[in-house]
Structure formats: structure tokens, C-alpha cells
């Protein structure tokens, strides 16, 4: 297994065209598109946040003070306890619709009760979809809740933020483009390279001499290309964060979500390579699947088919994780769906690869 993985990585390193397809092209496109909106977030600005305290307890006030009194959070905060005539639900709804505030948070009336009884408590966080500060605000609140819990020793309770966008459909350029851009580019580049990994072996018959090792061959190829995909995903997210100052709610979680795109791309590429008899057939399958996802995912959405396409699966969770700060644990059903999806594709690759002994 180890020797097979080293062989695949060595083959990839010496194949200049594969290196260009997997790394140079997607990174070049990411840089070009990101440069078009270079001033993604002006960190010198302070996001304006209103906090509505429906409970008005010691705990809720302490929670508010965690953000107001800490130097960690560069926010202009107004709360309903100190400014009751200004911070109202009606006023917050009006101001966020006019983009005069970046977000408002609602602390529920059972906030302290849930903390005392070691239960999870949900806080509704409304974010301005047109604000460049949305991801920053979401990140601040997630960090602040951890600080509050450590101060009051309430580790057995979980503070869960339920982020919502206002207006719902009016996302800014960055939030609209990144899920589409990264999901498609990372999938296509890794898929196109991986689709050549079996049909490009010369001669193919040598790989078919030992039926007992065919599952191992597929697995070793998968591990090799998934490793390369992880590197590609990390570099892509790092460029967006460091060079173009894109603020993600969690860098690690955003990397993991983009990594799912490359895993999908690799495993589907190996499946196409297992099915195909020539390089051209494998490339055609990759191109067809890309066009299918692009068309059905963006222009013609046919439920429920579109919900099972790799591009759409990743796109659905990218915004929640990257910009709204939703934790991966709350998306565990979707993650299990991704895992099962990839296992099925891997099994199909082994099945089709074993059938090649009848065709070669």
C-alpha cells in the first residue's frame, strides 16, 4: 500500500500538465476573481451590533458585558438594557434592512435557566447579508461565548448561535461567488487529474494481473490524490485569507468544507477512470459531469436530484460554516451524507475496476 501511494505521488510530481491542472489553474482563477473585489473587508471599521436582552438577568447582562468590556472584540455595541428606547426589535429590523447596523442578537428569556440546568441555549443572531462584516461579527460572538463560559464555569451548557441573514436573498458579491467558485474549481481540477490515474497506467494489463490487489490499488490511488487535494484546498483558503483578507468564521472549518470538494473530485475521477477504456473517455466523463453540475446547480434546479450533486452538497454548507459560523457538529447529518456518498463512489470504483479484466 505504501509503495503504491509513493508511486502515485512520484508519477504526479513528474507530470507537469497534471500539476498545472490541479494547482496552477484553480489558484490563478481564484486570484483573478478575488482581485476583482479586493477590498473585501475593511478591518479598521467597527461593526455596529445591537443586543436585545429579553431576560434582563445577571447572566444575560454579564454575557453582554463580555463583549462590551473586552478588548478582544472590536465592535460598537448597543444593548436594550442601557438604551431601551433605541434597541428594540422593531428598530433593529428596520436598521438592518437599511444596512445601518451589521447585526443584532436576541438573548432569550430562558437564557440563565438553561445555563444553570446545564442545557443548551440558542441565541438568534441576525446578520446583514450586504455587510462585509458579517463573518467577523459571527466569529466575535462564537469566541465571546467561550470566554463567557470560562468566566462563569458553565462548561456543561452549550451556547448555540442561530445565524440568519437579512435580507434573506440579497447576499453580497463575496458570499455569492465563493461557494460556487471554490466548490466547482476544486472539484473540477482534482476530478480531471484523478480521472487519468487508471487509464493512464501503461500497460493497463499489468494492473489487472492480481485480482486480490485491485481494491488496494483503488484505495492507494484515492489516498494519494486526496492528500494532494488537501494541500490544494489549504492553499486556496490561505490565499483568500492572507492575501485578499477574506474573513472566515473559522479557517479550519472552511478548509474542511473545501476539502470535501476535492475528495468528491478525486473519488469521482477514479470512478470515471475505472469505467473508461481510454484517457479521452475519462476526460469526457469529467467534462460531462462538470457541465451537469454547473447547469443543474445554478440554472435548472431539479429536486431532489440536485441535492445529491457534489457541488450542491458542498455549496449548501459552505455559507453556513464559512460566513455564519455554524459549527460542523450541528451539520453532522450532512457530514454523514457526504461520507456515505463517497463510500458508495469508492465501492463502485472497485466494482468497475474489477470488471476491466473482461474488457482488456
Care to describe what's here?
This protein is α/β, with parallel strands linked by helices and about 350 residues long. It has 2 domains: about 1-40 and about 170-360, no CATH class; about 50-130 and about 135-165, abc type-2 transporter like domain (abc type-2 transporter like fold). It has 12 helices and 5 strands. The protein has helices at about 1-15, 15-35, 60-70, 90-95, 110-115, 135-150, 175-195, 215-240, 250-275, 280-300, 310-320, 330-355; strands spanning about 50-55, 75-80, 105, 120-130, 160-165. The chain has a 5-stranded mixed β-sheet with strand order 2-1-3-4-5, with helices on both faces. The longest helix is centred in the middle third of the chain and has 29 residues, at about 215-240. It is elongated, with a radius of gyration of 24 Å.
Task: Provide the number of structural domains.
Answer: 2
> Roughly how many Å is the radius of gyration?
24 Å
Give the biggest beta sheet.
5 strands, mixed
Beta-strand residue fraction: 5-15%
Anisotropy-based shape: elongated
Output the structural class: alpha/beta
How far apart are the termini? 24 Å
Strands in their spatial order, largest beta sheet: 2-1-3-4-5
What is the helix tally?
12
**How many β-strand stretches?**
5
Question: Helix and strand string, N-terminal first?
Answer: HHEHEHEHEHEHHHHHH
Can you tell me the residue ranges where pLDDT is under 50 for at least 5 consecutive residues?
37-43
Secondary structure: helix percent = 55-70%
Round the mean pLDDT to the nearest integer and report it: 81
Amino acid at each position: 500500500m505504501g509503495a503504491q501511494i509513493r508511486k502515485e505521488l512520484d508519477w504526479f510530481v513528474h507530470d507537469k500538465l497534471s500539476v498545472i491542472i490541479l494547482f496552477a489553474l484553480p489558484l490563478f482563477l481564484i486570484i483573478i476573481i478575488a482581485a476583482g473585489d479586493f477590498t473585501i473587508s475593511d478591518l479598521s471599521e467597527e461593526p455596529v451590533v445591537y443586543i436585545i436582552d429579553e431576560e434582563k438577568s445577571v447572566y444575560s447582562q454579564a454575557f453582554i458585558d463580555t463583549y462590551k468590556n473586552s478588548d478582544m472584540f472590536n465592535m460598537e455595541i448597543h444593548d436594550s438594557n442601557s438604551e431601551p428606547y433605541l434597541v428594540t426589535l422593531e428598530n433593529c429590523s428596520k436598521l438592518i434592512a437599511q444596512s445601518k447596523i451589521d447585526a443584532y442578537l436576541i438573548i432569550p428569556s430562558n437564557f440563565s435557566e438553561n445555563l444553570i440546568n446545564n442545557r443548551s441555549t440558542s441565541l438568534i443572531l441576525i446578520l446583514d447579508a450586504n455587510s462585509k462584516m458579517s463573518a467577523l461579527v459571527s466569529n466575535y460572538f462564537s469566541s465571546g461565548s467561550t470566554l463567557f463560559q470560562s468566566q462563569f464555569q458553565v462548561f456543561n451548557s452549550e451556547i448555540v448561535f442561530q445565524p440568519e441573514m437579512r435580507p434573506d436573498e440579497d447576499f453580497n458579491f463575496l458570499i455569492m461567488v465563493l461557494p460556487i467558485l471554490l466548490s466547482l474549481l476544486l472539484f473540477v481540477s482534482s476530478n480531471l487529474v484523478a480521472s487519468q490515474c487508471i487509464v493512464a497506467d501503461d500497460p493497463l494489463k499489468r494492473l489487472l494481473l492480481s485480482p486480490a490487489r485491485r481494491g488496494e490499488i483503488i484505495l492507494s490511488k484515492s489516498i494519494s490524490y486526496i492528500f494532494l487535494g488537501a494541500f490544494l484546498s489549504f492553499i486556496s483558503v490561505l490565499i483568500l485569507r492572507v492575501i485578499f483578507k477574506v474573513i472566515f468564521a473559522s479557517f479550519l472549518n472552511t478548509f474542511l468544507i473545501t476539502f470535501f470538494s476535492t475528495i468528491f473530485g478525486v473519488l469521482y475521477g477514479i470512478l470515471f477512470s475505472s469505467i473508461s477504456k481510454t484517457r479521452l473517455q475519462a476526460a469526457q466523463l469529467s467534462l460531462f459531469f462538470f457541465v451537469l453540475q454547473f447547469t443543474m446547480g445554478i440554472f435548472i434546479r431539479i429536486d431532489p436530484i440536485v441535492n445529491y450533486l457534489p457541488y450542491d452538497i458542498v455549496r449548501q454548507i459552505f455559507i453556513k460554516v464559512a460566513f455564519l459560523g455554524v459549527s460542523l457538529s450541528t451539520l453532522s447529518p450532512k457530514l454523514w451524507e457526504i461520507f456515505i456518498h463517497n463510500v458508495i463512489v469508492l465501492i463502485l470504483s472497485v466494482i468497475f475496476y474489477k470488471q476491466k479484466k473482461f474488457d482488456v
